[in-house]
Structure formats: structure tokens, C-alpha cells
Amino acid sequence: MTTTSPPTDPAALRVAYLERLATSDEPGAVAVAVGALEAGADPEVVLLDVVAGAQREVGDLWAAGEWTVVQEHVATHISERVVAAVAQHAPAPAPSGLGKVAVACLDGEWHGLPARLLSEVLARHGWAVEFLGASVPAAQLATHLHRAGPDVVAISSSLPSRLPAARRMVEACRATGTPVLAGGAAFGEDGRWARAVGADGWAPDARAAAAMLAADPDGPWFADEDTGASAVPGSRDHVSAREEQAVLHARRAELVRQAAAAVRPGTAGGEVPDELADDLGHLVDFLAAAVFVDDPGLFDGFVRWVGTVTIPDGLRAEEVAPALDALAAALADSPRTVRLLRSAHGAHGGQPATVG
Ligand code: B12
């Protein structure tokens, strides 16, 4: 006897939804979501367990090389439309007076859908929400906060490499006196890097954020003054971390060329394939972010990830170790950075080349 799962079962809906994304079937994807709502599904479940759940799987399929970046783009566009269809079919209630929240992605952060999902959910919990979208420059955000005067600013990022930008955004928001709530994969599984950049609070997902803001609409939400970073702001350690991060930032293009020449000698003095330059650029950006928050775990995590991703012409698993060595040789004057590069070999399951 075959058992059919109820029309509101999130796991079954996610499978059906992903099938629609896989065939670029926008009307079909909208029908899965609206059908679930009509069957009594909670809009939050459709947004967070079906759409967001499927989007994570889209990311894994892309990283595994099973889906192209174009398929990911088409799927994400359809998911944006489905989020709009859910909002139209099951509108959020009028704001309940809890307050006003502005939701913005960090400068250079193009993952707007996570922040959009957060905005939809907070609106359902009675907040007056302003969604400011992807890649918002910190200075413009501060001007907007002065003008619009929200009670809370929610900053979003999916890439830990954007943490230096997060610090700039927190400082810009702090100058307006607006409490800063941070979230998204960029800030680490336990939010430790939200502390490190000085945010007033962090939540793992939209549900937790809504619950936290309902319990305490004003913040700050981090209980203690522990910034989580081992380097006390202004201390020698902190300054040297910022100096080494600035070196990585300033020398990014040159370091990418040097690492490319080391892993693919044929590119020396010539063109570096875009995908390889892109991956090596991310390697330098994640290294700079790890130096910035003084956490080797951040860079080790990226090195483990980059070794598993199959991007045609991108950095190959066997090229990671020589790239780490080339960067260590080029950055010999940055002791903290070299320490992270050497420890990352372990995360990649290898040994650093003996220098000298
Ligand atoms: C769609 C997508 C894109 C789209 C984004 C378009 C859009 N409109 O969002 C585009 C094409 C722009 C893109 C680009 C890139 N992407 Co992309 N992307 C994705 C993908 C597949 C889905 C994102 C999504 O829809 N998320 C929606 C749901 C899933 O997000 P969520 O995290 O659950 O959101 C919740 C929480 O984070 C939280 N939250 C989020 N923000 C906030 C804020 C606050 C204040 C709070 C409290 C909570 C909170 O609440 C949300 C709702 O519950 C992810 C896969 C993934 N696992 O996320 C990869 C992914 C994030 N991308 C990745 C990468 C590498 C990139 C690129 C660098 C690729 C490249 N080489 O160019 C670029 C970087 C561009 C940039 N600088 O931003 C990697 C990151 C890996 C890593 N090591 O960090 C991922 C994980 C894919 C993978 N599996 O490897 N990407």
C-alpha cells in the first residue's frame, strides 16, 4: 500500500519544488507553493523549509558540478518569483507596532534572497520591514538610517570573505545609534564572527531572528562584551591583524597572478583563466577575512570547500597545496598570514612545502 505524504509535508514539497526548478518550470514551482498554502501550509514553512531548503540543494548541485551556474541563476530567479507569489497569496499582517527594521546585504554581497526571506518572515511577525537589497554600500546605508530611522538594522551576508565589509557596515550603523543584528552563513555556524565584527546580535535563521526580536526588540542581543575575537580592538595584536589584512587586500591582484603561475606555469606573464583567477581571488579574500577575525577555522573551512567544488577551469583539488605554498612564500613578512596558510595544509589533508 503506497502512502502519499500530506500536501503540506515540507520534505515532499521540497522534492516537488526542486523538480520544478530543475526543469525551469516557474508556473509549476508557483503552483507547488500556492497549492501548499491552499492546503493549509504555514507560509513560513513554504518560505524557509521549501524554497530556502531547495535553494541550499541548488547550491550543492552547482558545487558538485551537476548543475551549471545558469541553472542556478534560473532556479534562483524562479524562487524570487515564488517568494513574491507567497506574499501575494498569503499577505503579511499589518505591522503590529513592534517597530521598524531595515534589512540590507553587505557591500559586495549579491546573495539577496536570504535577506529577502528574512524580510518576509519578520513582516509576518508584525515588523514594519524595509528590504534594501543586495550589495548596499555602508556609507549610503548610514545616510538612509539617518533619514528613515529604523529601530533595528539587519545586515546579511552568505560569504565569510565579506567580514571586513561587515565591520565597516557595523561601524557606519553604530554611528547612527541603530542596533545591528547580523546573520547569514558569513558569520559562522554559531555567529562567532558577528561578535568579531562588533554586531549587537546574531541569529541562525529567520525564525530564530523573529523570536529573538519579539523577546527583545531593542537589543543589544549579545549577552556580554566578549567580542569573540582574540585580538582586543586597538591592541598590538589587533593592529597587526588589520595591517596584514590590508596587505592582502592591497596585493590581491599580484598574489592571484603569483599563485596562478605556481599552479599553472603556463599562465606566468600571460592570461590567467577567469575561473582560476576567480577561485584564487576568493582564496585571498577568505585568507584576509580569517586574518581579520583572527580565526584559522574560517580559512580551513574555505580550503576544505574549494577542494570539493568542481568549477570547469577553476582551482583543482591538487592545485590547492601549491597555491597555499606560493602565497606563503610571497607573504613571508606577514607572520600571522603565513601561520594560517601553513595550518590550512592540514585542513586540505596535506603538508606545507619545506621553505628554504
Ligand atoms: C543563489 C546563489 C547565488 C546567487 C545569489 C542571487 C540571489 N538573489 O540571492 C549568485 C549568482 C549572485 C551567487 C553568487 C556567488 N555565489 Co552563491 N549561492 C547561491 C545559493 C545557491 C542559494 C542562496 C539562497 O537562495 N539562499 C536562500 C537560503 C538558503 O539562505 P539561508 O542562508 O538559509 O538564509 C537564512 C539564514 O542565513 C538567515 N539570514 C540570512 N541573512 C540574515 C540576516 C540576519 C540579520 C539574520 C538574523 C538572519 C539572516 O535567515 C535566512 C532565512 O532563514 C547558495 C547555496 C546556499 N547554501 O545558500 C550559494 C552559495 C552561498 N554561493 C557560493 C559562492 C561560492 C558564490 C560565488 C563566490 C561564486 C563565484 N565564484 O562567483 C558568487 C559570489 C557573489 C557575491 N560576491 O556575492 C557558495 C559559498 C561557499 C562558501 N565557501 O562560502 C554557496 C554556499 C554554494 C555552494 N554550495 O558552494 N550565488
From TrEMBL:
The keyword Nuclease is annotated on this UniProt entry: no
InterPro entries in alphabetical order: Cbl-bd_cap, Cobalamin-bd, Cobalamin-bd_sf, Met_Synthase/Corrinoid, Meth_synthase_dom
Chain ranges of the B12-binding domain: 98-223
Keyword Metal-binding found: yes
Keywords noted in UniProt: Cobalt, Metal-binding
Domain of life per record: Bacteria
Protein name: Cobalamin-dependent protein
UniProt organism field: Actinomycetospora lemnae
